[in-house]
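Hello again,

I reread your note about wanting to compare the complex against the isolated chains. To keep things tidy I'm splitting this into two emails, and this first one only covers the full assembly. Below are the input lines as submitted, including protein chains and any nucleic acid or small-molecule components. They are followed by the predicted structure of everything together. The single-chain runs will come separately.
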Amino acid sequence: MSNSYTDKLLRVNLSEGTVKTEKINRDWQKEFIGGRGLATKYLISETDSKTDPLGKENKLIFVTGPLTGTSAPTGARYMVVTKSPLTGTIACSNSGGYFGSELKFAGYDMIIFEGASDKPVYLSIYNDDVVIKDAAAIWGKGVWETEDILKSVEGDSDSRVAAIGPAGENKVLFSCIVNEKHRAAGRSGVGAVMGSKKLKAIVVRGTKGIGVSNPERFFEDINKSKEILREAPVTGQALPAYGTAVLVNVMNEYGGLPSYNFRSSQFANAEKISGETIADTRLVANKACFACTIACGRVTKLPDNASEKYIVSTSSRNWKDAGGGPEYENIWAMAPLCGIDDIDALIKANWLCNDLGMDPISYGATLACAMELYENGAIDEKTAGMNLNFGNAEALVKMVYDTGHRSGFGDYLAEGSYRLSKRFSHPEFFMGVKKQEFPAYDPRAVQGIGLAYATNNRGADHLRAYTIASEIMGIPEKTDPAETEGKAALTKLFQDATGVVDSSGLCIFCTFAIGLPEIVPMINSAAGSDYSVDDALKIGERIWNMEHLYNLSAGILGAEDTLPKRILEGKIAEGPTKGMVNKLDKMLPEYYQLRGWDDNAVPSKEKIEELGLG
Amino acid sequence: MSNSYTDKLLRVNLSEGTVKTEKINRDWQKEFIGGRGLATKYLISETDSKTDPLGKENKLIFVTGPLTGTSAPTGARYMVVTKSPLTGTIACSNSGGYFGSELKFAGYDMIIFEGASDKPVYLSIYNDDVVIKDAAAIWGKGVWETEDILKSVEGDSDSRVAAIGPAGENKVLFSCIVNEKHRAAGRSGVGAVMGSKKLKAIVVRGTKGIGVSNPERFFEDINKSKEILREAPVTGQALPAYGTAVLVNVMNEYGGLPSYNFRSSQFANAEKISGETIADTRLVANKACFACTIACGRVTKLPDNASEKYIVSTSSRNWKDAGGGPEYENIWAMAPLCGIDDIDALIKANWLCNDLGMDPISYGATLACAMELYENGAIDEKTAGMNLNFGNAEALVKMVYDTGHRSGFGDYLAEGSYRLSKRFSHPEFFMGVKKQEFPAYDPRAVQGIGLAYATNNRGADHLRAYTIASEIMGIPEKTDPAETEGKAALTKLFQDATGVVDSSGLCIFCTFAIGLPEIVPMINSAAGSDYSVDDALKIGERIWNMEHLYNLSAGILGAEDTLPKRILEGKIAEGPTKGMVNKLDKMLPEYYQLRGWDDNAVPSKEKIEELGLG
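Full-complex prediction:
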C-alpha cells in the first residue's frame, strides 16, 4: 500500500566507510509515528546512554516524519537525534527549509551515522546512489561556501546541503547543523557530534515522489488546515508580517524579555532591534520553508555604510548580499541579554553564527554570562583579550569568530556558560537548566515556561512545551502568566502534543492555529495509519517518558529539574513584572504526579508498563 | 602536632607536565579519615561524574590512610580512586605490599593525576624530588621488566614501583595497577585509566619517618590488635598456612563455588587446585605486606617439567623463577569457573595476568562467559581463533596474552563479559552486576553476599561487604547462608565498617580478628583524632552514600541493583545447595529502608542532610 513513508533508512558506518539500506522497523514506526520518536527509539536501542557524546560509539540520526515532503502545511521538518555534548541528555534538534523533504524524495526516512571517519568526508545522496566522499577540500570552510562548493562539485543546483561549519569541526559544545545556509538544527551541540565523526556535510538530491495513503482525504485534510492557518492571527498575520521577531516588543512590554544576563526583565532599547524596526529598515523579503503557508523566515540586508564594521576575514561571502534572519531568540540572546542595541552588529553576528555553524541562543547567552563575569572582576581584560562590558557590540561580533574557531578566550566560550561560569568560580551566573542556556522568556515573569524549562528533556529550551502560546498569546486559550495553578497540566499536555508534531514532520508553528484534531487526520490520510487523538497523545507521552528514562540512565536525575537561584529567589527589580520570581516548587510536585513519577522523577512501574517502555 | 598524616598531596598535571604540592583539606580529612573516603571526596569535588572514564577529564588518585606505613598490623594499603571504564561507577581499588608505605615515607598522603600526557611518562619520587620522566623505553613492556628497569635506572633497589602492563596501555577494561610485581589494585579497570593518561609507572623512594600522635598509647593499641590477630583461627592459622586459597575446599564442600560460568555450584576437581594442594606441591614461601602479621601472600614455583607448556614469548621473565599467588579468587575464576583443573596452567595464567597488568577475576570470568557462548554456538572456532570449550587449559593461557594485547579474539575479551555477552547476543550469560564480573561465592548458595553484590557501589565484588565472614566462617558471629532475614542489616553494617577500614589504610583481612573497637583507637592514637566507634560508623555511612550519589548522578540507578536471571531464577541443579536461588527481593527493600533510601535507591533529603552530603 502506498503511503508517505519511504520505509527505508540509510545506515552509514563512518569507521568502515560503508553504506547500507535497511527496512524501517514497522512496529517502532507504529509506536512512535516517525521523526523524533522513531529516531530516539533507534538511538536508545543501539547506543549506551552513558557513552561519550563525542566518542565514536555515539550515533547521529537524521530523521523525517510521515508529513515531511508532503504538501501538508509546514511539512518540511527533519530532526537530528543524538546524545548531546552540551547537556549529556538526549538531543533532538529540528530544522526546516528543504533538506528534509529532499531526503524523502531520494527515498529515505532516516539516516543513521555510526562510528567516525579518520579523515573529513561528506555523504552524497542522489536517489539510490549514496557515496561517502572526501571532504579535505571543504574542511575548515564556512557553511555558505561549503554549500556553494558542494552544489558545484555535485553538479546539481537543486541539491540540498546540510553542513557543519568550523564550530562543529572544532566541537564547540553548542555548534549546530545548518541547511540551505540559514536553517539550523540549532540547539544542544548536534554539530559537534557531526564534527567528532569528521562528517562535514550531507548533499542530497531526490527525484522520487512521495505518495499518500488516501489522496482524496489527505487533500481535504490539508486544505482545511491551510484555511485555519490563513485565518488565525498569528500564522495569518503576525508571523508573515514580522517573523518571530514580532515577540521582541510583545515580551518587552509585558516585562518578560530578560536583559543583562537576567539581571533585568526589560530592555530599554528594545525598539531598536524589534521585529517592527527590522521590517521597516532591513527586511528584503519573507522566506518560506517547503510547503509552508506561514513564511515566517526573514531575508535581511545591511545598509551600505554598515557592511565593513567589526567584520574580519571569513569566508568568501560578500557582506553586501542579503541573508537570513534574525529570529526572535537570536535577537534576544545577542542583543538585550548582552545589553546591546546595535542592529547591524546583531545581524552580522547572526550571519556569522550561521556561517560558522553555531547556536546563536547559547552563543549570546554565554557571552552575556562572560560579560557578567567580566563586570564582577572574575575575568579581566588580559584573559578575555578585550573589554567585555555589557553593551559592547564589537565584542559580540569579534567573539563569534573566536568561539567558532576556539581561539583565545573563544575557547572558553565554546564550552557554554555552565562550564564557563564554573571555570571562573561563579556558577550562579549560569542561566539555564541541565547545562543548556535559557531561551528568550523570563521564567520569573511567566510561571509555566519555568516549569517547561526545568522539566525539559533537552535542558532549558522553549520548543518542547511552548507555554508562551497560552500564557502570553492566548492560544489555545489564555492563562495568567503570573499564576502557577494549572501550569503542570498545561506543560504536560504541550510536551506530549509536541512529541506528536515533532514526529510527524510538521513545524511546531502550525500549532498557533491547528491542533491534534487537525494534525492527526493529516497523519492518518498520508501515512495510512488510524490513530485517534488520544492514541496520538499517548504516543507523545511515550516519547516523553522514553527520553526521560534515557536521561535518568545517563545520570541526569530529578535533582536537575530546577532553575537557577536568580530565577527562584531573585525578584525582578523593576517594570510591570517587578517582584516576581518563579514558583517552581508550587508546580513541580504536581507535574511529577500527573506524569506518574515519584518525588525524584522516577516513573512508576505502572506508568512504564502502560506506555510499553518496560 | 605530630601525627601519622603527612598532610600533603602531590598534584601532577600530565597535560601540562607540572607537579605541585598542596596541603590536604583538613575539614575533609576529618570528615573522611583518609584513604578511600578522602580521595573519593576529592574526585567528586574536582570531576564530573558523567565524564568519559578514559578521557583526560577523569582523574586518577593514589591515596593512603593514617595507618598506612605505621606499624599497625596490616597497615600497608594504598587505594586508587577514579571513575571506572568497566562499570561507569566510582572505582576504588586497594593494594598492599610496600608501595603505599613508601609513598608516606616520601612525605605524601595522596597523588592526584590529572589531564593526560601526549607521550609515555612515569613519575619519579625521591622525597621532595618529584619529576615526570620519559617512559618511551618501557612502554609496551610487562610489569616485571618495567620494575626491574626502573629500579636500575633510578639507582635505588629500595624504590617501590607501581606500574601498568600492556593491558593498561591497551585500555583493557579490567586492567589493573601492579606494585612489587604481584600486588595489585585489581578491579574495575583502574589500569586502563592510567594507560589513558599514558602514565606507565610511579617509582617512589622515601626516607622520612612517620610520626604518631600518641606513641605510648599507639603501641599499646597495636600490640593488643596483634595479639588478637595471632590468636584468631583465620588470621593466626588458616591464612598463614594456606593463604586465601584455603577457601577453595571450604566453598566447594558447602556448595557455593560456582563452576562452568555459574551453571553449577561445585567443581568435581576442586581438590586439584585447592590451597592445600598448592601448599603441598607448589608453595615456596609465605610473603607478608608491610607491617603485616598475617602473611597470607604466597610464593609458588612451577615444577621443572611444566615450565614451557602453553607459554609463548613475553617479557624476559624466567619461568623457572618463583612468583606470587595464586589467590583464592583468581584460582576460582580461571579454574572452576572455566571448568579447568590444570594447576600449572592456572599459575602461569595468574602470573601472566600480573605481568600484563590485568584483573584475573574479570579475565577468568570473561573467558568463562566466552566458553558458554562457544558451547552454545554463538561464537565459532573461526571467530575465537581456537576451540573454547570449557576445560581448555591451553585457551586459558593463550587468551591472557591476546586479551592483554587486544589481539584477535582477545580484543573482545578485553571489553569484559557484559559487553562480550551483548556483542554475541546472549546478555543472559553475563554473570555480574553493573558490568563487573562476580567474584568466587555463589549468591544462590549464600544469600547475604547476593545483596552485597547487588548493592555494591563498584559493581559485583566481595570487598565492600564480605558477608562470607559471617555466613560461612562465623565472624563475628555465624548467620545461616540460606536465610535472608537479617542480611540487609548485616550488609549495611559491613559496608559502612569497610569504608572505615579502607580509609584507615588497614587491610580488610584484619577484620577476621579485630573490629572497630580495636581499629578506631589505633586510628586515634596515630592520627590524633578522637573518633568514637559510632563516629567511625557514621563516616562509613557517609562514604557509602557519597559513592552512591556519585553513581546515581553518573546514571547508575537503582534498577542496576540486581542480579542475573540465572541467579534469581535458575535453581542450583545438584549438590548440597541444590534448589537454591538468591531471594534478593526479600532483602533489597529492607536494605533500602535501613539506608534511608526510597524504592529507587534515592537517599531521602533527611539522610543527605544527616550525613552532611547536601
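For quick reference: Chain A has a mean pLDDT of 96.

B.
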